[in-house]
Amino acid sequence: MRDYAQVMMNQAADDRDTKACMNQALAALSRRDFGRVELGDRLKRKGFDAETISVALDRCQDYGLLDDAKVMDHRIHALMRRGYGPAFIGMDLKRKGFSEEIITEHLPQDGNLWAERAQWIRCKHFGNPLPHDSSERIRQMRYLYQRGFDRETAHRICSHSID
Questions:
Q1: Taking a C-beta distance cutoff of 8 angstroms, is the pair 147, 114 a contact?
Q2: Tens digit of pLDDT for each residue in 69-83?
Q3: Integer angstrom CA distances of residue 34 from 15, 24, 91, 125
Q4: Helix or strand run (H / E) with residue 9
Q5: Which of 21, 26, 40, 99 could form a disulfide with 56 if both were Cys (CB 3.0 to 4.6 A apart)?
Q6: What would the DSSP string read from start to end of 84-141?
């Protein structure tokens, strides 16, 4: 009889932990969207165990509150609007816990799109005229590398304009 009581007390404690974890997850999701890994890390920092976190995340996913694809698309477009290139965006998504396969699936692969974005950020930061000397061209190319654009795109953008 005592074993049954102990099991029931443990189950009630687990239910309380799961409910508390679920409440923390819902509170976080009410402020902004999270990916599954990112929300799991946040709940882990709050002191919940891995099993409780997994149950809470599964419930959130069942209710349609967690959608990694939607979170990734929002993040990609936000960083593109801020002038970042594919390498920077890919690294940011890896830091957020998304897998390499999902990142390559969602990240636009159109080279012309990235060239237009690089042209836009170069003109926004340096103005419309192309650099006339090599030191200025190198400075502008370095700026584009740091923003996550590849060498070929940066060289093409800083050497001649795209029409």
A1: no
A2: 899 999 999 999 999
A3: 24, 13, 17, 31
A4: helix 2-31
A5: 21
A6: --HHHHHHHHHHTT--HHHHHHHS---HHHHHHHHHHHHHHHH-SSPP-SHHHHHHHH
